[in-house]
Amino acid sequence: MFDGIDVCTLFAPSVEPLLRLYQGHLGFTQTGAWEITPGSAYHRLWRLDREGWAASTLDVRDLAKPGALGGGLRLVGVPGWPEVTEPRSMAVPGPFALDFYVRDLPGLHAALLADGFRFRSEPVSYPLFGTDFTVDEVLLEAPLGLVHAFVEYLPDRHRCVLGDRPEEQVSEVVAAITVTDDIEAGLSTLRDRLGGQVYFDQVFEGPTVEAMIGLPEGSAFRAVLLRGPERRNARAELMATVPDAAPESAARRPLSVVLSLEVRDERVMAAPLDGDLEGPVTPTTGPHEGRSVTTMWPAWGGVLELLQPAQAARTVVA
Questions:
Q1: 77-118 pLDDT, tens per residue?
Q2: Helix, coil or strand: residue 16
């Protein structure tokens, strides 16, 4: 069932600062916009009704790359949502990063610096663990306290929308990373329960990786990537937590990312799912109009939105 993450949903006090990055610099196109009134199905699915925003009107914008199969963005503006300014640490489980391929990494790096954005380091080059090639990469301190990894696009190595659209400079989201204390629990959900296929399972370590991420000397962590037979983006990535010399607060962070994927096998939804659930519900408006959806909150730190395929929804409505 799992073949790629269709949409990464991000929550923020306002969507306008996010549009500055995702449209202005990364070239995403807005494909939908909705004003979601209080008490909606989305408030329940995203647990906003539990967290004090039940009376909030949500500003929802969908962004995508033309021609991309998955890897879109959904920005949700929630008035009063807490600002997150501290850098994301790998010491605390939860959403950590989104990855993108870039056709001109030095040019994007310079443009973002000129616009006031910050990076964890200068771009670095390192042999990708478990492969025979080298990647150039840099980590942006992105909005919402997330990290965005920009990797120089290699046409013979990287699969993304850049291969079909030479006018694009930045890809769709190619990976969504969750840091977890229990990778095996994450694999139980993504691989065993949802049918994802592990194609990369390596340990990252060494001075270059430490400098790029900002890790203490001698750090090492396991990273596992999953995708499906159609090789759609964005891939799901699990990374093990890394103790930090000065970790961020251990207090619970607000929800920041929900990973939405279509459920193409009805047997998956019929089987017991991992973690706490919200739904299924069928919204009557908004991005999920007429489609059954359930959110899954497993203990390992990710939040997944399991969505009925659009074609199946049209069949049911008819």
A1: 999 888 887 778 898 889 999 999 999 999 999 999 999 999
A2: helix
Cα torsion angle, 136, 152, 135, 220, sign: positive
Write out pLDDT tens, residues 146-194.
999 999 999 988 999 999 999 999 999 999 999 999 999 999 999 988 8
User: What are the E-state strand segments in 112-251?
Assistant: 118-119, 124-127, 134-141, 147-152, 175-180, 197-205, 220-227, 235-240
pTM: 0.92
Contact 242, 258 (CB under 8 A): no
Query: Contact at 8 Å (CB) between 275 and 296?
Result: yes
Q: Which two tokens stand for residue 270?
A: 């019929």
Phi, psi dihedral angles at 152 (to 5 degrees)? -60, 130
Long-range (24+ apart) CB contacts under 8 A made by 121-125 are 121/211, 121/212, 121/214, 124/208, 124/211, 124/212, 125/208
